[in-house]
Design a protein that fits this description.
174 residues; mainly alpha
Length: 174
């Protein structure tokens, strides 16, 4: 049972929280911080710091345990990707009409485009779903915990659907 596993040893619960603050390198850390900056600011502004932290940590815990339940690999799970995916899932529900500014490289030129958040997060989710399926088929031979991303995102979606926000303005994030 999942709950028995989580609570069977205090270190399991501690590990389920602390793994979210370790990263596999600077690119991993910077990528997570970019996503947190784009999506997290708005969520925290609307739910407050405590509820934001709770959503962040619980999304990460759910994502980490989902990965562990599907794979028994000796590869450690690190990073806040599942936590940030939970924030992104909540953002997709609460701010579904938002627009996201993205940098688009075209050959040697760089430009910005504005995309609907549902398109942006939908593409992110479908990519993770496809890669998660591939990791299941290959018995988790990769080093990215796609299942944790999917579980974190799903938890964020669920929470946002169960707890709707009032006065959802349209935001354009940088």
């Amino acid at each position: 049972n999942f709950l028995q596993f989580a609570l069977s040893d205090q270190s399991n619960l501690v590990n389920a929280i602390t793994y979210q603050f370790l990263h596999g390198g600077w690119v991993h850390l910077i990528g997570n911080m970019l996503y947190l900056w784009v999506f997290g600011r708005t969520i925290e502004d609307h739910v407050g710091s405590f509820k934001f932290l709770l959503l962040f940590l619980v999304s990460g815990i759910i994502g980490g345990f989902a990965q562990v339940l599907l794979f028994t690999s000796a590869t450690p799970i690190i990073g806040a990707s599942a936590s940030i995916a939970g924030i992104m899932g909540a953002y997709a529900v609460w701010f579904n009409r938002a627009q996201i500014k993205a940098i688009l490289p075209i050959f040697i030129f760089w430009t910005t485009i504005t995309l609907p958040v549902l398109l942006t997060l939908g593409l992110w989710f479908v990519t993770n779903l496809f890669n998660g399926y591939a990791s299941i088929i290959s018995q988790g031979s990769g080093n990215v915990a796609y299942i944790s991303h999917i579980a974190g995102f799903g938890f964020g979606l669920l929470i946002a659907m169960l707890l709707p926000l009032k006065n959802q303005p349209i935001y354009i994030n940088p």
